[in-house]
């Protein structure tokens, strides 16, 4: 057990439900040795002089408000990349889809890495993201192709910050509510859009306490599960305070330390996003192979 403010367990990979970002990726490590933007944001919008919030207090406030700015924007297209490194080997899982920030729902198509020989053997996995749950299709491991697997994300030691092979974009933004020690790095561009780059750390416990009610239990699970409260981040906000890109760096133990860099890119604000949850009869209830 690891004691850090309160007793908690280390996040461990390779379990039945840690399907994409952990079990599959750890296996790979072992084998290897936009639409027009719409909607005004809130939070880090430029002042009358057009300058970004740059002093430490204002910078932290801007980053913490990024989740509210996304809710004001309504929805967005997203691209994700999760890179895991262990023992000198790196693998990357990529995803693409859309998120409805108002109704707290999203859908991603997650592409798994090739095997050790370079063969692209894994079918893309469809993931549906809703508060407290992750649905996966083409899960593999004995699950029929026409069935979905449902995972209670509030029971996961990482709160689905790593499990799904992509940090849930909703959680990625809410995680910034715990931002501290924030510094303004400077102005740059993300996908042709001028943005303000901020760097700092976010506290998992503080983020969970400040999170929106729909996301709070998921982040509470992560706050209890990870062995460290502090998560470094780089966040890129546009002039309306909307999060355009965020990179979090997680670390957990699974027969050694595994470092995870999770990047979420947001664009096409206002693009309609439709998420249809599977009927109960399409959810697999059998045993999942490890």
Secondary structure layout:
Elements: E1 2-4, E2 6-8, H1 19-32, H2 56-64, H3 66-73, E3 75-86, E4 89-100, E5 105-111, E6 125-130, E7 133-137, E8 148-152, H4 169-174, E9 179-190, E10 193-203, H5 204-210, H6 213-225, E11 230-237, E12 243-253, E13 257-267
Antiparallel strand pairs: 1-2, 3-4, 3-13, 4-5, 5-6, 6-7, 7-8, 9-10, 10-11, 11-12, 12-13
Please characterize this protein's 3D structure:
The chain is of the alpha+beta class. It contains 6 helices and 13 strands. A hairpin with a 2-residue loop joins β9 and β10. The protein starts with a strand and ends in a 23-residue tail after the last strand. The N terminus is likely disordered.
Radius of gyration, taken over Cα atoms and rounded to an integer in Å: 18 Å
Content of β-strand: 35-45%
Classification by helices and strands? alpha+beta
Report the sheet with the most strands, covering strand number, pairing sense and barrel closure. 11 strands, antiparallel
Order of helices and strands: EEHHHEEEEEEHEEHHEEE
Average of the residue pLDDT scores: 82
Uncertain residue ranges: 1-42
Per the principal axes of the C-alpha atoms, what is the gross shape?
globular
Give the strand tally.
13
Distance between the termini: 24 Å
Helix content: 10-25%
Continuous helix count? 6
> Which strand order spans the largest sheet, edge to edge or round the barrel?
8-7-6-5-4-3-13-12-11-10-9
